[in-house]
């Protein structure tokens, strides 16, 4: 899980760092960057949806502690409003209207609660060693399989559709 969270953070960092350097005079480059932002958003949604649908309920069943993962779900909800604004911008912005500082501002609106969540969730998972580690490992493997089996299922646009959208 730490590896996945590291990938999420590095992806967001790459967007934040590159946003002001995207050449507005080149609509194709702008659209490619917006598509990159959309892909990052889909990956984030995919990861957190799968946690809430598969992994967290499994952990609570194995531990016998209802609500054990509730803090993590609350943290998902804390960064979601800002994240949703960023995702909406990346989907609806035309290359002509692109604003790298707007991208940065939107990220700043959810980065702190997201980063806190990604770090604290690892701490939550570390204390699960008091439960059946074999069953926890199996739950994580089912979670990973779900992620792999459903990769890109959420996406509502193909790359070509996204490019022709604007």
Structural class: mainly alpha
Give the percentage of residues in beta strands: under 5%
How many DSSP H or I helices? 7
Helix content: over 70%
Biggest beta-sheet profile: none
Give the averaged pLDDT, no decimals.
Answer: 89
The tally of beta strands, per DSSP, is 0
| Gap from first CA to last CA | 36 Å
Flag low-confidence runs.
154-166
- Radius of gyration (CA) equals 18 Å
H/E topology pattern:
HHHHHHH
Shape: elongated
The count of domains is 1
Domain Hemerythrin-like: 4-123
Protein name: Hemerythrin-like domain-containing protein
Q: Can you put this structure into words, describing what you see?
A:
This protein has about 170 residues and is mainly α. It has one domain (about 1-20, about 25-165). Helices cover about 75% and strands about 0% of the residues. The chain is built from seven helices and no strands. It has helices at about 1-20, 25-65, 70-90, 100-110, 110-125, 135-150, 160-165. The chain is elongated, with a radius of gyration of 18 Å. Mean pLDDT is about 90; it is low at about 155-165. Pfam families: Hemerythrin.
Concise structural overview:
This is Hemerythrin-like domain-containing protein. Residues 4-123 form the Hemerythrin-like domain. The chain has helices at residues 2-18, 27-63, 70-92, 100-108, 111-126, 133-149, 159-165.
List descriptors.
mainly alpha; disordered C terminus; Dimeric_xanthone_biosynth; Hemerythrin-like; Hemerythrin-like domain-containing protein; elongated; 166 residues
């Amino acid at each position: 899980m730490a590896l996945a969270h590291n990938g999420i953070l590095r992806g967001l960092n790459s967007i934040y760092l590159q946003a002001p350097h995207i050449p507005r005079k080149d609509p194709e480059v702008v659209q490619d960057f917006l598509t990159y932002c959309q892909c990052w958003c889909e990956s984030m949604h995919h990861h957190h949806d799968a946690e809430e649908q598969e992994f967290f309920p499994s952990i609570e069943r194995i531990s016998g502690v209802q609500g054990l993962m509730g803090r993590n779900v609350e943290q998902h909800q804390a960064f979601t409003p800002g994240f949703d604004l960023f995702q909406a911008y990346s989907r609806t912005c035309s290359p002509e209207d692109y604003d790298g500082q707007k991208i940065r501002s939107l990220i700043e609106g959810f980065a702190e609660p997201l980063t806190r969540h990604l770090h604290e969730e690892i701490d939550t998972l570390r204390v699960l060693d008091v439960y059946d580690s074999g069953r926890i490992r199996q739950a994580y493997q089912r979670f990973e399989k779900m992620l792999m089996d459903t990769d890109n299922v959420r996406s509502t646009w193909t790359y070509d559709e996204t490019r022709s959208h604007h």
